[in-house]
């Protein structure tokens, strides 16, 4: 038991730091590692990915709060955009969990890996947006929020893997895109976690769970991510944009490969 708690502590520290640095919520890091840890603890393959997704979404809630707070203090959160997108984000994230609950683990892992790789490719090779491109009107932001919330819930991320590229495409600065993404990670994680609890309520596993959420892992990871997220946010305001994009992309590709290896 001590080994698992230590593993959760290290994972929480790393994901909190990366959430602050890149505005990604940490789920892209947590899911592949949790798949590995839960597998080693004897969780059946049929529930492996679902438990990793649900646990990750629940752990992102406090991580996103800490990350958003740190970015807010540095005036890098566009709260107008975040608040406008929130209704769509809540609906998309919650409803997508009902889809995820009926997808077997391996296809879900393939979707996760493919999604991460596509977004990483865009961050490295994506074209520079036209200088006149602006953020869409409120109805458009709500629609984009629903799409981001839905996909984020399926792959258990705080939304940064989609929100950051979208805001960069709309000519927002990298630091502002990351800060606003961190704020949107709060409603995404909350709605997603609630959905995974509801959809996994009938499931019984070898671990103490609340639906598809392994609650001891959430408590341990959250206890340390609060402290490391502000450190990552501080670094995000000192690194150049191009380097931030490359770090973002390389981490996602590595974790996509790790996810596939963990399931097979």
Automatic annotation (TrEMBL):
Similarity remark: Belongs to the 4-toluene sulfonate uptake permease (TSUP) (TC 2.A.102) family.
Entry keywords, A to Z: Cell membrane, Membrane, Transmembrane, Transmembrane helix
Subcellular location, record wording: Cell membrane; Membrane
Keyword ATP-binding in record: no
Keyword Zinc assigned: no
UniProt superkingdom: Bacteria
Bilayer topology term: Multi-pass membrane protein
Pfam families in alphabetical order: TauE
Transmembrane segments: 6-36, 48-69, 81-101, 108-125, 145-170, 177-198, 210-232, 244-263
Main location: membrane
Protein's name in the database: Probable membrane transporter protein
